[in-house]
Every structure is written in structure tokens, then in C-alpha cells.
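Field log, afternoon session.

UNIT: design team B
ACTIVITY: writing a sequence onto a fixed backbone
BACKBONE:
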């Protein structure tokens, strides 16, 4: 779960940065 969450967090974070 921790690893998946980190991946999701990174994905969401990069999406926010792009926005």
C-alpha cells in the first residue's frame, strides 16, 4: 500500500505541477 500510495502521490503531484 505504501509503495502504491507513493506512486499515486507522485502522479497526482506531477499532475498538479503541470496544471
Amino acid at each position: 500500500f505504501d509503495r502504491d500510495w507513493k506512486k499515486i502521490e507522485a502522479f497526482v503531484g506531477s499532475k498538479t505541477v503541470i496544471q
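LOG NOTE: Residues 9 and 15 are 10 Å apart (CA to CA).
NEXT ACTIVITY: expression trials, pending approval
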